Every structure is written in structure tokens, then in C-alpha cells.
Amino acid sequence: MILAASGTACAVTTLGILVISRYEAWSRDRSAYFVSFAAGVLITVAFLHIVPESIEMNARAPVFILVGFLVLYLLNRFLHVYLCHEHECPEYTVGLIPMLGIGLHSLIDGAIYSITFNVSVFTGVLAAVGMVFHEFPEGVITFVMLERGGFSARKSALYAFAAAAVSTPLGAAISYPFVHRIGDEALGGLLAVAAGALIYVGATHLLPEVEDRSGGYTILTLAAGVLVGVIIILSHG
Fold this sequence. Notes:
The protein is mainly α. The protein contains nine helices and no strands.
């Protein structure tokens, strides 16, 4: 299941890269809908299922949720603010820095698959539904940033594939042997960290993009994502 989920994420990211490289205008116009739907699912799943599940498994889960949120925030801030200021770096780093951030983020996505599927198949599927939908625009964004940095279309596609697509199953493969051997309480702590990471991705990484593109039907696809998350959780209960 972990291999299937991370492999699907890799495939969807690759699809985003291929589509943006061939149909740039269409991809730019539609990517906001994938982003808003993914945000709705991720936030709903995190708050209504993964957070309560982690608290049941580990009494200190709220602390780990905060840790997961802050770690991704600090990582994002370091990469985009401290590592390289746009006016002090060569032009190509305008694409490389976001690519590095997305690559690390995708590695963490792979680890989240390992953690959630080790808790239960249902928890893993819930997390995967929202995460897979944000892979398409992630592939689009990585390609566009690299191309803006001066890379050719071919190199942009190749580097985006390595950073945003392959890194997800790689992260799952690296983390699985460690996650598979730990006890329930430690797994609950890791699940809480994953919940904090999902909340960060949904609330501070995806939602601002939706707000920046307030036109069209993004509010409807956001509501659809929330509804899908609620329906899946209720049907399982």
C-alpha cells in the first residue's frame, strides 16, 4: 500500500510536469483547482481523523503536532529567506532554491505515507487522497520555477522529475524500515508530527495559493475537498 500510494504520487507529479511542458496555458489555469481540492481534503483529514488518532495513541501528541508544523515552517523559511536572497544569487538559483524546498518536502511526503499506513490502511488512504491531488500542481510549479531560472524545457522537466516526483517513493523507502519497527506510542508521536506537517501544507502552503487565485471556482473545489474528506471519515465510522 505504501509503495502504491507513493508510486501514485510520483506518477501524478510526473503527469503535471509533462502537461505543463506541453500545454502550459491549460495547466496554469487548472492547477488552482487541484490545489484548492487538496487543501480541503488535507485540512479536513488532519483535524477530524489523524489528530484524534494520534492523541489516542500518544498523550503528548499535541506537542508533536506543533513540532511537525514548526519544522516545516522553519524549513520553508530557511530555504526561501536565509539560504539565498533573490538579489544576491545567480539567476538560476531562482529555480533551484524552490526545487530544493519541494524536493525536501516530497521526501517528507514519502515518510508521511510510511507513518500513516503503519497506523492503519484507512489512515494512510485518507492522507494519500489529499496528498496525491496536490502532486499535480507541485510538478507544474517546480517546472515553471526552473524554467524561469533560465533552464531549458528539457532540463526543467528532468530536474523537476528528480526533485518532486522520484523523491516521494524514495522518502517512503528510506523511512519504512525505521517506522515499521517502532512501538505504538512512538508511532502515535510520529503520526502527530505528520498531522502537523499536513496542517502546515494545507493551511499555509496550499490555501494562500487559492486565495491568490480567488477567481473561478476554487472556493467550490475547496468545499468539495472538505466534503470528500468528511464523507470518507463518516463512512468509515
